[in-house]
Every structure is written in structure tokens, then in C-alpha cells.
Amino acid sequence: MESNKNKRLAKNTIYLYIRMLFAVCINLYTSRLLLEYLGVEDFGVYNVVGGIVSLMMFVNTAMSGATSRFITFCLGKNDVLELKATISSAIQVHAIIALFILLIGESVGLWFVNSQLNIPTESMYAANWVYQFSLFASVVAILQVPFNASVISYEKMDVFAVIEIVNVVLKCVIVFCLACFSNRLIAYGGLLFIVSVLIALMYVVYCFSKLEGFSYANRYHKQIVKEMTIFAACDLYGNGTFAVRQQGINILINKYFGVAFNAAGGVATQASGIISTFMNNVLSAFRPQIIKEYSVGNIPRMSKLMFSECEILILFIGLIFVPLFINMDFIMELWLKNVPPYAVIFCKILLVCNALSVVTQIVQDGIFATGKVKRFSFIAGNLNLACLALTYVFFLLGKDAKFAYYAMLICIISQTLVNSYILQKLIKDLDMKKYLLNTIKPFAIVVFSLSVLEFSLGEYTGTWRKLLVCIVGNMSIIIGVTILLYPMYRGLLIKVLKNKLKRDKYE
What we know:
This protein has 16 helices and no strands. It is an all-alpha fold. α1 packs antiparallel against α8 (259-295), α2 packs parallel to α8 (259-295) and α8 runs parallel beside α11 (343-370). It is globular.
């Protein structure tokens, strides 16, 4: 039974990894074209206006976590009736959230865009169109959540990967289409909205036609809605303050430094997103099994999944992190040609933030599995607000824009320690001290590789330096991966070799 779960986990990880590689390659190329077509100013306008819509999505973020957790929990218990009731309740709740976001967006959000943001007068007309398209695309995304969450909870990662690849391809196509429009900023917002509708329809059709037990009944399940709402309400503070932190920092940068720095932040977020995309893909493969093992009380396997996931993920992130970090100037110039000021330093700090967030994200999945998120949400929310306050203090003291990202780094380290403490209190059988100590070994391999390459290859310049960094850096981490993971798979390797020798003997 466990071997089947491990095989499914491995397959799902591969599917998501393929999807990630494809998405990263396409996104990096299209981001360059997008910056070229829109220009720094319009690109900055799109990022800051779209950020206002993201700020209003914190309610949906909390409900989406609750939906995914409850559907996965029902699948783990193999309770078909409860599963159908949970799916129906999730669809109803998200329809209400979509209406709520639409009302807030067309009132408070619209006022904020037109009166509070630092947007050039000549771009104001386009900014309003982009805002409307972004708002309606967000409404579609909210309605899509129960279907997307179900695909992941059922562990249909091959389907998820295919749909998301289609999503990336369509977004790539619309960037090429921008050359046909006079007002490219408005066209980009409109075409993105159309793509969001098409992707949502794909998820809806697949869920109703292919997922066993997936159905909708127009019936109100008071207890399930209550449990989901309580879970989401407890998580709401953490998610809400996270949205406030992210977009608050974006707005502070806009106020103190202007849209050019918002463009730099947008570019840095997309480039550093390579690591977070990879991390989220692997987390998506492990998360359903972690929740399902908790639902049946199998804490030893839950612990094993978390420990293994963390070690493997840190090391494989290192394969991407080291070459990107050392060659960031070269990569940015190659990618964008005209690199916005501060984009390189922003991206380097965000790369470190994303790499460190691996540890706390896995712990957070463990907390979500228990369903007891009140304490976690309260403390995480306070840390998010502290991060925003720290950024504001830095700017008041005359510090430059990169200090906003230093504040994020401090916040992530603090959250890692706090989340580990909370999970230890919730599940006594988990050894969180051992979990944190186990992260030292893979992180040490990545840091050692980075340090050696940074100092030893300092005299090399140009293409040769880039090539040496990629080859030597990846080889050193691969050696570290082999040393660390060999004991875990030694028995499996020996078994495979013995079977091969037997086949050779008979042949």
C-alpha cells in the first residue's frame, strides 16, 4: 500500500516538474517581450494596479486553503457522502465570495486606484481598464477554486500539469498578439481575462466528467459550511495580513520611488519565481498525502514525508539557486536587455527568501492538516504587519528600496521558527527540533557550493565564467545530493542491482 503511494507521489512530482520547467522557460521569455512591448512605465502601472485586486483576494485565499484541506481530508477517510457535501458547500461559498469581491472592487478598490496611486495622468484611462479586467479575472479565479482544489486533492497532477501548460501557452500567445493593438496595456488586461475564463472552463468540465464522487447538489450543508468557514476565518487574519504586506510594500515603493521601481519589483518577482514555482509544484505533490496520512492517524509516515520532502526540495532548489544567484547580472541583461534599476538586487534577495521559505511552507502544510490554524494565523499575521511596519520605518529613515526585501527576509526566518514551535505543540509525536536540524545539512551543501564558486571563479569573466558556474555548481550540489540521499535509497539500489545481475545471468 505504501509503495503504491510512493509511486504515485514520484509520478506526480515528475508531472509537476515537467510543467514547472515548461512554464519557467515560457514565462521568462514572455516577460522579456512584455516589458519590451509595454515599456517600463506601463509595466509598472500593470503591476501596481493588478496588485490592488490581489489585495482584495485574501478572503478567497483563506477559503481556498480550507476547501483544499477539507476535500483532501474526506478523500483520506474515503467518505463519499461527506466528500459530495463538501464539494457542493465549497462551490456555494466561493460564489458568495466572488460576489463580495466584485462589490468591494467596484467601490473601495476603484476609488483607491483613481485617488491614491501614483499613476501618470496619461496612463490613468488604461489603468482603469486594466483594473476592471483584473477584477473580473479574479472573480473567475475565485469560482474556479473548488475545481482546481479537487484536481489536486484527487492527486491528478498529470491533468493539472496539462491544463496549466495550456494556460502558460495561451498567455505566451497573447503577448505576441500585443503588437496588433494600439493600446497594448488595455489589450493585455483584456486578453488575460479571456484566458482565465477558458482555463476555468477546462477545470469545470474535467471535474464533472472525470472525477469519481465529484458532484454538485443545490442543498445547504450547515455543519460543513460552518466548519469550513471557521477554518477559513481563523486563517483569514494570516492571509489578509500577507496580502496587506505584499501589496503594502508595493504601494510604499510606489509612493517613495515611483512606478519604475514597481517595474523592477515585478521583474524581480517573476525571475525569482522560478524557485517558488518549483517549490509549490513539489509541495502540491506531497501536500495531499500529508493531509491524508494525518486524517487516518498515520503520524510516522506523515513525519517521514515532511522530513524527506524538505531535504530533497532544498537540494534540488539549490540546482536552480546557485547559477541564478551568481549570474544574476548576466541573466537579467540577456533576458531583458534594458534592466530596470534595482531589479538585480531585488531578485537576489527574493531568491534567498524563496529558498528559505521551503522549510516553513512544509511545516505550514502540517499545521493545516490538523485543522487548528487559529494560533498560527494570529502569529503569522502579526509578523506580516511587523514586516510592513519595518519597511515603512526603513523608508522614513531614508533607506533605499532594497530594504523592503530585507524586511521580508527577516519575516520569513521568524515565521519558520514560530511555525515549527506551533506544529510541535499540535502533534507531540513530531520531532520539530530534529526537522530543523535536518535542514542544516542540505542548506550547508548549497551555501558551500555558492561560496566556493563565488570566490574561486571571481577572476573568470564573460561566457566562460557563466559556463563554469553552471557546470561546477550543479555538479557539486549533485554530489551533495548523492551523499545525503544515498543512505535513504541504498536498499533500493542494491535490490535493483541484484535483479539486473540475475537477468544478465539467465540471458
